[in-house]
């Protein structure tokens, strides 16, 4: 059995996907072709925002938010320490300082209480300017945006939603990708909505930010790509990937139901033995991962392996303990909840064709 069975999905959608790819090969508009515009319209409609802007991958999407929000040296950007590296990487890459935040015990997402503590600490120290929060919809569950929006407003910070794993999730019917000032996602093949290579997107309701993001995405373009009004990057989604995503997006609502059915079944069977994932009332997870917590993780993973069931650890190292962030001066023990999660979490196979 596979951890994520992408072939099963391809078999299910093969005729439609093959035909979409053939259309692109025939019209030959491989960069920014009509499928890219069609996908951006459909993504905006699905998420329920004014603008969806595709780009080359989920990391670039986050980097583009740093550029559009003018985040730079001397700025503090708050993010969870228990996340994928890219969330924190883009902050440092922009020259700003990542300020890590502990996790909520029940949801594994950024802890709003610790976030307030960390913001107040940075203000009290007076060395950095608090600028933004990047919240992560870890394993598919949206972060606590009602609280995060209140905190962002209280301290005058921008809020960014890293929905790389969260696409499809909801809070009280509001879709992941629609929270904060800008949201980002990734279409890496293993994400809930994945393509057959690298891909990403940004979402916003702000017309000015959308225009800036579209400019930064193509060499800081003004009226066209040979009129360059700012320093940008080259981060476009390939037309072929957009074509594949159009067919996958059409199937996505059905797949989301299947993922939730699989998760329900896991929880029903496993809750006698494990601490199963907590989905707060009103929340819907897109189940990028189905993650358990156990003190005897290694023994349990070996037990599953012996039965032919693959498991993975997301994530075994918190950001504050990554070698690349040594210079920030954090120590072991700084984030007790996140550190315990890093020691005890493991994920089971999860995909709509399970
Ligand atoms: C996958 C992921 C990213 C980066 O996406 P890529 O498309 O691989 O660049 C960023 N943040 C989180 C939380 C992710 O899981």
From TrEMBL:
GO terms for molecular function: pyridoxal phosphate binding; transaminase activity. The modification N6-(pyridoxal phosphate)lysine is found at residue 191. InterPro entries: DegT/StrS_aminotransferase (IPR000653), PyrdxlP-dep_Trfase (IPR015424), PyrdxlP-dep_Trfase_major (IPR015421), PyrdxlP-dep_Trfase_small (IPR015422). Keywords: Aminotransferase, Pyridoxal phosphate, Transferase. One of its GO terms (biological process) is polysaccharide biosynthetic process. The keyword Transferase applies. Pfam families: DegT_DnrJ_EryC1. The active site is at residue 191. Belongs to the DegT/DnrJ/EryC1 family. This is Aminotransferase DegT. The lineage of its organism: Bacteria, Pseudomonadati, Pseudomonadota, Gammaproteobacteria, Alteromonadales.
